[in-house]
């Protein structure tokens, strides 16, 4: 009998699924890490637990302190989950328009939500979180956008899992970037242990990596308004800018043909991975990451032809 004793033990070691429902040229194989199987439902669970432990270990807060974080949702859920069974309080500063399901999940896990105007973007949420950190006693804002623990969480866990699961046979790594933590940490690890691996990044339209202007997009969780210092741009061997329509279309196909229920950042990652497959060598292994699940976007019409 194998029994877990704490929900935190279930974070990470997510399944690797080969995607077999999409036609691929030249015996190319495509794999995806199903990060929605984490207990908080996203890739960010790996980060939440690390940020909370680090905040206490370095004395930024006492074990009864407050963590305040600007978040589109998944990092907030992850921090709230990390605080379960501790006396740490969590305040999530969220631009108002982000998915209502994610906000409900944060609250269910005991977090307090503070809204900022959607039109002020993540920058508005970051400014508000910093102001709250000053106002409150025993409070700390880990700031996923500037904290090296962010890429490190993925360097230490996601990278090694991918290498282990595919016996080191990875030719191309494809991942979306919001903070860039997942991409930077994982790509850095893979580059160290797999010579010649190609690492490519994915963003929605309305993100700046390909020189575009920051603007609104429906694909949640990815897209950059600025590039955090911990992001090493030399790891961007290609940058795919995927429209919301393309991302949502792939997200619907993943459900219909593969039985994989994921958010639209996964659809964007799939579209980029399929484009890589078109130019990959014979028999190449392409690995991507599906950061979260579909259920937190049902109210946004993720499965409607015309999203709500
Ligand atoms: N997809 C979703 C749904 C997310 O919530 C996030 C986290 N913002 C990402 C992708 C990208 O992760 P990162 O912040 O590590 O770039």
From TrEMBL:
<keyword id="KW-0808">Transferase</keyword>
<comment type="similarity">
    <text>Belongs to the cysteine synthase/cystathionine beta-synthase family.</text>
</comment>
<dbReference type="InterPro" id="IPR001216">
    <property type="entry name" value="P-phosphate_BS"/>
</dbReference>
<dbReference type="Pfam" id="PF00291">
    <property type="entry name" value="PALP"/>
</dbReference>
<keyword id="KW-0198">Cysteine biosynthesis</keyword>
<protein>
    <submittedName>
        <fullName>Cysteine synthase</fullName>
        <ecNumber>2.5.1.47</ecNumber>
    </submittedName>
</protein>
<dbReference type="InterPro" id="IPR001926">
    <property type="entry name" value="TrpB-like_PALP"/>
</dbReference>
<feature type="domain" description="Tryptophan synthase beta chain-like PALP">
    <location>
        <begin position="9"/>
        <end position="292"/>
    </location>
</feature>
<keyword id="KW-0663">Pyridoxal phosphate</keyword>
<dbReference type="GO" id="GO:0004124">
    <property type="term" value="F:cysteine synthase activity"/>
</dbReference>
<keyword id="KW-0028">Amino-acid biosynthesis</keyword>
<dbReference type="InterPro" id="IPR036052">
    <property type="entry name" value="TrpB-like_PALP_sf"/>
</dbReference>
<dbReference type="InterPro" id="IPR050214">
    <property type="entry name" value="Cys_Synth/Cystath_Beta-Synth"/>
</dbReference>
<dbReference type="GO" id="GO:0006535">
    <property type="term" value="P:cysteine biosynthetic process from serine"/>
</dbReference>
